[in-house]
What we know:
CATH topology of the largest domain: Jelly Rolls
Largest sheet: 9 strands, antiparallel
Amino acid sequence: IILNVFQTSEASSVNKCLQFDGIDDVVNAGDINAFDSSQFLTTEMWVRIDKFDAWRTFFCKFQNLANRIQFQLYNAPGKIAVCVNNNANINKEGNQAYYYTPDPEVTIGDWFHLAMVFDGTLSENERQKLYINGMRRPLTREASAKGVIPTHMPQTSASLLLGAEKENGAFGFKGLMDEIRIWNVARSADEIRTNIESSLTGEEDGLILYYPVHQSDVSTEKLTDNSSQKQHAKLINFNNETCFVDRIVAVPVVAATHPEVTYSHPDGIRIAWVRGSGSANLVFATDSEIGLPQPERNVTYIANQEYGKGSRIGVTNWYCVYNGYDASASIKGLSPSTGYRLAVVDYNGASGSELYTVDSTAVFTVTTVAHEKKPQQITFLIDSAIVEGHGPVVLSGTAQSGLPLTFLSSDSSILRIKDGMAYPGSPGIVSVTASQTGDNDWLPAADVTRTVIIKEDLKVPTVKSSSANLKKTKPLIIGGGVLIGTGLLIGIIAAFAGNDNSESNQPAMINDRPPHDPVMSIVP
């Protein structure tokens, strides 16, 4: 695996990489038809750049300016360019799909993992991507690139080359190259990261070419293809005595800088920084140490976002909270209103052979914010009048926080409350109070009190008759009106006159009733 390919300057190793002289060295893999009119490509490799010169090429399939696939240095130090042209009208559209990194991304003397990805099925601004050390980097359109990025790569008879633009070595790259992988699929960031520090079997889906340099034999003047395609490439113009060299990993030349807090919470923060030239970064955090952290070389630190749970440096309180390829990290498990020191560390080398560098500009102090609880309000409504003996009433209400409410009755003999239900008791007036005491994030809410009257249950009036065999009730006429039905009281107590069992339909008249001989009365 690549983990063993990486070597420090203090170690002994027979692992090799390919050295280009920047004059006429070139690797020729021949015409690979798999890319003709294809919509997918991923080219990835480890490179160490020894000199910045404009347009020096890592990889290409170059027929002419109008029909090419190219991955190269831009015309400014540290910038990388990618290009896919398919029958471009050069006079009208310029370098149709030529893009480059707006800022310097690579340095002299450090190893970088570079990956160019093309996916013609996506929207134009997503078709071309560049990843450096597993992290996507921004691209900007070259001023002369006035056309659109094509949806398909060109169909050409051009050879696939490494280290130069032309078969004669023109625009040759000066530096080292290793672990070259070319795919006819568009690999995702996660897929690239998964294999960034491990070798391949050669049988992976979509893998067209795979050149792990240390498996090649210089005497054959070929670069061995370890994929299932076995498309061995020719080494042209290389010096057999110097083209394969030990792959040596050194301390990163440039350390990370400009760390800043991008998000703060009482128990956590998120930080970002400008990456240095290391292939990856560590972040250490402490609540007590001073000075710079001093991670030990050849020691692998296991990260944990929860402060205090990751690997620590020796017996110090510098804890590893991040280890990866991004330029940002989240740290959790912090205490509110507490000061912490954080350090971003660059490193090269794989597990067990890391070489670290840290600069004072990448160490900073941050104080977590105080825990500010949010205010909340209660919404609570209840009927203001309930008849005694009524069935249980559901107490409904909500707090802004979503936390449960507590209900309290001022007199449980009038209204008893249990499990969010109110049970009416004896008549009277009672107060019901809704409360919410808050939690770690919410302040207590102001109580809301409602007044409830429990009314006496007045029974429905009934009609009593002194006649056991009364069959009909005669309507009561008052002032010419008719009071229909029994049990209806209109502010007066009335009585029916007469006590006969006749079938007469004539109404009984009040004036006809003997004054003190009621035979029927309406009672409560």
